[in-house]
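It is worth pausing here to work through a concrete case rather than discussing structure prediction in the abstract. The textbook approach is simple: state the sequence, then state the predicted structure, then interpret. We follow exactly that order.
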Amino acid sequence: MATDAAAPAAGLAPEARCGDLLVVFGDDGTPIQTRERSGDWSLELSGPGWKLLSRPPSAGWRGFPMRAAASGAWRLWRIGELYGAPADEGGFLFEIASGKRPALELNGHLLLLGWNADEQRWHLWTDRFGTVHAYRASCGSKGAIGTFFPAVAGAGGSARELDWPGLAGYFALGFFPGTRTFFDDVKIQRPATHAMFDRSGRLLTEERYWAWRHEPDPGRSYGETVDEFAAVLHRVSDEQAQGRLAVPISGGLDSRTTVAALTRDGARSGASLWSFSYGYAPDSIETAVARQVAEARSLPFESLTVGPYLFDRLDAVLASVEGFQDVTQSRQATVTDRLDGRADAVVAAHWGDVWHDDMGLADRPDAASADVLEHAISKMAKRGRRWLLDELAAPRLGESPDEIVKAQVAEELERLPSIADADFRVKAFKTEQWSFRWTLASIRMHQAGAYPRLPFYDTRMSDFFATVPTEFVRGRRLQIDYLKRYAPDLARIRWQAYDTNLYRVRYFHSLLLPSRALKKARRLWKGAPSIERNWEVQFRGEEGRRRLERALGGSRLAELVSRPRVQALLDAFFASPLEEGRGYTVSMLLTLASWLEAYG
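Step two, the predicted structure:
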C-alpha cells in the first residue's frame, strides 16, 4: 500500500520480493513499460513531485529480494541480498546512509535506495561491483531512477536518441563502455558509487566510495596463500549456503571450486543442494564432466540439452538482459523453468576465472600505459565487429569507430587508480567494464527463475586477491592447487578445456601432445564437428534460418541498414558461419533488431 513520505514510520520490514523499483519525477501519467509488457506499476510512496513505484515478481521474472526500513527522516530499500549481514541489519543500513559507517562495508549482490525527508533528497548506493544495475534519466521536468532500463527511459522523458559512440563500443566489445546505454540521455550508475538526487530527480553529487588496490603480501608464502584462499572461500560459501540452492556445474574449474566448498567435510551448510548442467548435445563433454563432479559429491544432478529455444523465448530473454548482452549468450534461459519452484537461489560462480588467472601481462608487470591500452583492447575486441561498425556505426559518426572505441577504453583506464602491476590493472579494468556491463547482464537471466548468489563478487574475495601476487594465479595455479589440496577427488576429474585432470594438466604441452594429436585425428576422421556455440543451435536448419530472417526483417532495423545488406550478411553467414566472426555479427544484429522492436 502506498504511504505518504511525511508519515512517521520506524523499524525494519520483513524481507519481501520485488520485481522492479522505479522513482518517477514529474509524472505526467504516461504508461510506463514493464518487463512483462502487461500490468501496472503500484504506488509505494509519494512526495512533492515524485512517486516510488514497484512491480511484483512474475512467473517469468522472480526479481529481487527486498527489505524496507524506516527510522527518523530516513526510508531505505535494500534491493538484492546483503552478504555477511549483521544481526541488526536495519541499524547497519541506517549507519551507512547517515555516514556513520563507510559505504565500502556494503557487501553483496544489492542496491541501496534511500529517501531523506529532512534533506528532501534521494540517495542511491551501488555495491562494489555494481551487481544490481540502476539507471537514471532526466529531461526537463521529468526524470527517473530505477532497475529496468526501458522504464527509466520512458518515465524519465528520454528523447530516445541512439547513442552512436556508445553503440560503437557495444558492437566492438560486446558491451557498452562506462555509463553509456542505447540512449544518450539515459545512464547507468557506476559500481561503488553513492549518488544523490534532489526531489525533482536532478543529480546533485556522485562520489566513488571504494578504490582498486593491489598490494601483494610479501610475508605470506604460496602455500599459505592457498590456505588463506580456502579460508575465505569456505567462509563465503557457508554464509551463502542457505535455503534451496541450485548449483550449476560446467566442465571448468569455477563451478567445481564452489562444489568443493559447498560439499566439503565440515561445511556449515543450511542448504538443500540440487545441481544441473547443460550442453549442446546429449553426449556433451561438458555435461559428462559435470555429472562426474556431482556424483563425486553425491549431489542430485540433472543433465539438460540446449535445443532451439531462443525464438520462442526471445521476449523473455530480452526482458531479462534488457538488450545489454548478445541474446544468444543467455543459455541460462533453458533452465529457468526448473529453477522456479525448485530453488530459492542459484550459485553463479561467474568471475572466478578472472580472479584465478593472469591477464596476459604477467611477464610485463611494468608495461607502459600505451601497451596496457592496446592489450586491454585486444583482450576484449570481438572478431565479427567489422560489419557492425562499418554498416551501422560509421555512417552516423564523424570519425573512425575504431578510434572512438579506443578513446573510450583509454578514458576508462584513466579512471582507475595507479596500479603498479600492469596485469592486475587490466584485471581491474576488465572487472569495471566487462564484468559490470556484460557478465552481470548475463547473470540477470537467472532471475527469471531464482536470485543469483555470487561468491566471487563477495568483497572479502576481492580483498583477498588484492593481496595475491600475479605469479601465484598465473595459469590458474592457485585454483588448481586449492582443488588438489582440498578436493583431490574433484581434481582427478578431467578439466574440459584441457581434456585431462588437474594432476596431469602441467604436461599438456609436452607428454600429452601425442594423445592430443590422436584425439584430433579421430575427430577429423569422424567428420562431425562438435557444436560449441549457442548460436549454432539456435540458427541451424531451415527453421532457424527462416526465424532469423524474419527477426531481422523488422522496419526499425531497416531504418538503420538496408535489407539487401542484411540479406547479403545472412547469405555469407549461412555459407560460412565461422568465417570473419559472422556468428557474433549476426547474433548482435539480432539483439539490436529485437531491442529496437521492443524498446527503441
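Step three, interpretation. The mean pLDDT is 93. The chain is about 40% helix and 20% strand.
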